[in-house]
Amino acid sequence: MQAKADIRKEVLQRRNQLTAKELESKSFAIYDQLKLLDIYKQASVIYVYMDFKNEVITKHMIEDALCDGKKVAIPKIIDDIMDFYYIDDIENLKSGYFGIREPDPIMLAKEKNSLMIIPGVAFDKKGHRIGYGKGFYDRFLHQHEQFKKVALAFELQVLDTIPHETHDVLMDRIITEERIIIVNSTMK
Ligand SMILES: Nc1nc2c(c(=O)[nH]1)N(C=O)[C@@H](CNc1ccc(C(=O)N[C@@H](CCC(=O)O)C(=O)O)cc1)CN2
Ligand SMILES: Nc1ncnc2c1ncn2[C@@H]1O[C@H](COP(=O)(O)OP(=O)(O)OP(=O)(O)O)[C@@H](O)[C@H]1O
Question: Is 96 close to ligand 1, i.e. is its CB under 6 Å away?
């Protein structure tokens, strides 16, 4: 099996080759599927990343969610710890960690069992995830076990199997532009 670092490099290289048009259309297809899920429709709060580089675009989701009256919480890294803060306007995000747009750390989000929309570099069908290698999501999710974890990824990011460790937290669903991978069928 390939080492995590090799997989990260290879998948990022492939994801970087997507054109702006492909990014848009695939991201819309993913958002369209997410919108149909009961867990999304019923969520009054969503924890979601602000897309950067060639991640699945979340901008429209954030704008729609705020418009629909959902509370939206976005991650920010402070002293090497990731936490989530509510935002009321996407325009108020500021360039932070590695240039990712982050919220002002004013309203700390403290939900325990909300829906979390998770980014990543590579996934496998069993719900394993490789991120940028800093373990931010793993650590956060270990401390917040009750979140419903829905990952967004392009099909090119889903591999048959990826190396995993005991501290890895599994995704419940992975949505790509082609399918929804159900890892945890008991999640409602
Ligand atoms: N949109 C988004 N926000 C997020 C995350 C994420 O994956 N996506 N995170 C999830 O943890 C946290 C930030 N984690 C990060 C960890 C490392 C690097 C980083 O090293 N970036 C370098 C190298 C990338 C590469 O390997 O090519 C860079 O961007 O130059 C960036 C973000 C919190 N916010
Ligand atoms: N629950 C945890 N507690 C303590 N350290 C952890 C935990 N999870 C991950 N780490 C550490 O964080 C580092 C990166 O972990 P890993 O390679 O799993 O990150 P990743 O999932 O690719 O990245 P990220 O979550 O930032 O997107 C490793 O050194 C790992 O030991």
Answer: no
Beta strands per DSSP E along the chain: 45-48, 71-78, 81-87, 94-95, 101-102, 115-118, 122-124, 129-130, 148-152, 158-159, 173-175, 180-182
DSSP 150: E
Domain range list for the chain = 4-182
Nearest CA to ligand 1 atom 4: 49
What CATH superfamily is the domain 4-182? NagB/RpiA/CoA transferase-like (3.40.50.10420)
Contact in structure between 87 and 93 (CB atoms under 8 Å): yes
Considering only CA atoms, which residue is closest to atom 2 of ligand 2? 139
d(CA 115, CA 100): 21
Do the interacting molecules here have an ipTM over 0.90? Answer: yes
Per-residue pLDDT for the chain (188 aa), expressed as one digit of tens each?
A: 579 999 999 999 999 999 999 999 999 999 999 999 999 999 999 999 999 999 999 999 999 999 999 999 999 999 999 999 999 999 999 999 999 999 999 999 999 999 999 999 999 999 999 999 999 999 999 999 999 999 999 999 999 999 998 888 999 999 999 999 999 999 86
Q: What is the pTM of this model?
A: 0.95
Q: Is 130 in the pocket of ligand 1 (CB under 6 A)?
A: no
